[in-house]
């Protein structure tokens, strides 16, 4: 329980991480210098700057990165407090970022040890997105780092080629299943965009249904085909997929005393390099043996 709480520290307490504005002065150990001119990007160097942005993102700790065209339809009209969201004008791209969660910790779901993997994912989101945004600002462009706020991460990640949406309603990657945490950076720096991917997930999910069978609160659909049906006001309308009953999902979280990752743990795409279930005690024995 202590570990799960501590893992959220960066995300929850370093709130400047998601600032929309340039953060300010140089660190104490880096000599200040005059504000650089805006880094010019044109057709001659756009491929190189795109690769640079991706390399920098991974250098900050990201495991996955893709770039989608900016779509104002994927920006919320207001935040959860009802305050209108007005995205910075001129945005052209969204950099979708994925961090892989610890596979053994996820396998202890729905324990608090599993919660540590999720919390670390969120803290990494805050660190990576804020660092990348500040890097882009220092090149002379606008950058807005966001976690789960401002816009839905999953459709943006799909547009950026990170994966597809599975029966469990989550972004599912070919190599790590849905064991990823997502964040994104909206920006106006000229970048090349990635395309969507299709590795056959929808056809696989039609047959599999393992996540639906494992869900303790029956929040995941057993329907053979995706549809436009929704089960909650939190489900976005007009999307062809298997909508999850997120109210049932959250009810289990409340009863459990913490979040759940069972639908992630049992997914065969996650099981390529892990086991389905691990007792928390076995997790810690393994970790201690590694010391």
From TrEMBL:
Subcellular location: Cell envelope
Keyword Iron-sulfur: yes
KW Iron (keyword) present: yes
A GO molecular-function descriptor: metal ion binding
GO CC, one annotated term: cell envelope
Main location: other
Keywords annotated in UniProt: Iron, Iron-sulfur, Membrane, Metal-binding, Signal
InterPro entries the UniProt entry points to: 4Fe4S_Fe-S-bd (IPR017896), 4Fe4S_Fe_S_CS (IPR017900), RDH (IPR012832)
Any Pfam family: Fer4_7
Family matches, as PROSITE patterns: 4FE4S_FER_1, 4FE4S_FER_2
SUPFAM superfamilies given in the database record: 4Fe-4S ferredoxins
Domain 4Fe-4S ferredoxin-type residue range list: 195-225
The protein's name in its UniProt record: Putative reductive dehalogenase (RdhA)
Taxonomic source organism: marine sediment metagenome
């Amino acid at each position: 329980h202590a570990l799960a709480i501590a893992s959220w520290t960066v995300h929850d307490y370093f709130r400047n991480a998601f600032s929309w504005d340039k953060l300010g002065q140089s660190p104490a150990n880096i000599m200040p210098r005059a504000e650089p001119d805006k880094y010019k990007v044109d057709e001659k160097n756009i491929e190189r700057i795109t690769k640079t942005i991706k390399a920098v993102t991974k250098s900050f700790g990201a495991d996955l990165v893709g770039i989608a065209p900016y779509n104002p339809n994927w920006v919320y009209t207001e935040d959860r407090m009802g305050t209108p969201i007005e995205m910075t004008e001129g945005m052209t791209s969204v950099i979708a970022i994925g961090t892989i969660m610890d596979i053994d910790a996820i396998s202890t779901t729905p324990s608090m040890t599993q919660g540590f993997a999720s919390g670390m994912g969120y803290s990494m989101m805050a660190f990576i997105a804020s660092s990348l945004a500040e890097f882009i600002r220092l090149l002379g462009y606008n950058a807005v780092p966001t976690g789960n706020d401002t816009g839905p991460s999953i459709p943006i990640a799909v547009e950026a080629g990170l994966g597809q949406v599975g029966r469990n309603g989550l972004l599912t990657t070919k190599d790590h299943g849905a064991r990823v945490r997502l964040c994104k950076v909206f920006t106006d720096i000229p970048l090349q965009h990635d395309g969507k991917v299709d590795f056959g997930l929808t056809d696989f999910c039609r047959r599999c249904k393992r996540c639906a069978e494992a869900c303790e609160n029956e929040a995941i659909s057993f329907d053979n085909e995706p549809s436009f049906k929704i089960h909650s006001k939190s489900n976005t309308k007009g999307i062809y997929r298997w909508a999850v009953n997120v109210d049932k999902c959250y009810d289990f979280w409340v009863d459990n005393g913490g979040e759940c990752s069972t639908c992630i743990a049992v997914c065969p795409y996650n099981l390529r390099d892990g086991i389905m279930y691990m007792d928390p005690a076995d997790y810690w024995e393994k970790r201690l043996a590694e010391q």
